[in-house]
Amino acid sequence: MKAKVKVEEAAERLKRGEVGLVPTETVVGLMATERGVRRIQEIKRRDPSKPLQLLCRSAREAFGLAARVPPLAEKLAGLYWPGGLTLVLDRPGGGTVGLRVPDHPTVQRILEAHGGPAYATSANISGEPAPSSLEEVDPRVLEEVDFIVEGEPGGGTASAVVDLSGENLRVLRPSGELDQEKLERLRREVGV
Predict the structure, then answer these.
(1) Which phi-psi region, left, alpha or beta, contains residue 64 (left: φ > 0; alpha: ψ -120 to 50)?
(2) Is-contact 39 19, C-beta < 8 A?
(3) Conformation bin of residue 85: beta by default, left when phi > 0, alpha when psi is -120 to 50
(4) Which end of the chain is more exposed for a tag (fewer CB within 10 A), N or C?
(5) Of 1, 9, 3, nearest to 109 (Cα)?
(6) Are 67 and 90 in contact (CB under 8 A)?
(7) Is residue 160 within 8 Å of residue 76, measured between CB atoms?
(8) What sign results for the dihedral spanned by CA atoms 66, 96, 50, 129?
(9) 8-18 confidence digits (pLDDT tens)
C-alpha cells in the first residue's frame, strides 16, 4: 500500500512531480503538477493528446489562466463553483484549457498548500468506471501512484464539462444539474 500523507506533504510531493490519489466532491482523482502530467497519462493508459483539467483555488485564479472569459462562463462559475463543473476555455497562446474549482475541503487545502493550480483527472484506467471511493480504485492505479491523501468520498458522479472555447456552446458531459437545454437557457439569460 502506498504512503498515506497529510495535505502539506502532498503539496510538497506534487511540487517534486509526484502523482497523488485524492478524494474530490465528485470521484477519486489523480492529481499532479505539470511535471507529473505524463505519469498521470501513463497510469491511466490514456491518450497523451487528451487534455487534463486544472483544479484551481478560485474562479479568479481559474479565469486568470484563460485567454478570454465569456459572460456565460462567469454565470456558470457563479452557479456551480466551487463544485462539479469543468469549463473549457481558450488558453492564451492557443489551444484550450479545462478549469474547475473543486468543492472538497481536502483538495482545497492541497491547492492552498501547493500555492496554485494542479492537474487532475479521475483515478481509473481510461474507459473504465471512475471510482467514488479509495476502495474502488483499480489495483493497477494504486500500484503506480506515489501517495494517497485520505478524505471524505465524493458523490461518485464526474463533473459536468462545458465547452465555451472559440464559438463553442456545448455540454460535453452533462450532469444531473446541467445539460444542453439548461445551458441554452442560461445563455439567453446573459444575453449571448
Answers:
(1) alpha
(2) yes
(3) beta
(4) N
(5) 9
(6) yes
(7) no
(8) positive
(9) 999 999 999 99
Q: pLDDT for 150-164, tens place per residue?
A: 988 777 777 899 999
* Residue at grid coordinates 456565460: 72
- The tens digit of pLDDT for each residue in 16-64 reads 999 999 998 888 999 999 999 999 999 999 998 888 999 999 999 999 9
pLDDT digits (tens, 9 = 90+) for 76-97: 999 999 999 999 999 999 999 9
Residue-range domains of the chain with CATH: 3-190 (3.90.870.10)
Rounded Cα distance between 105 and 43, Å, is 25
- The answer to whether the CB of 67 falls within 8 A of the CB of 99 is no
Q: How many residues does the chain have?
A: 192
* CA 123 to mean position of chain CA atoms: 11
Query: What sign for the dihedral angle of Cα 19, 20, 26, 27?
Result: positive
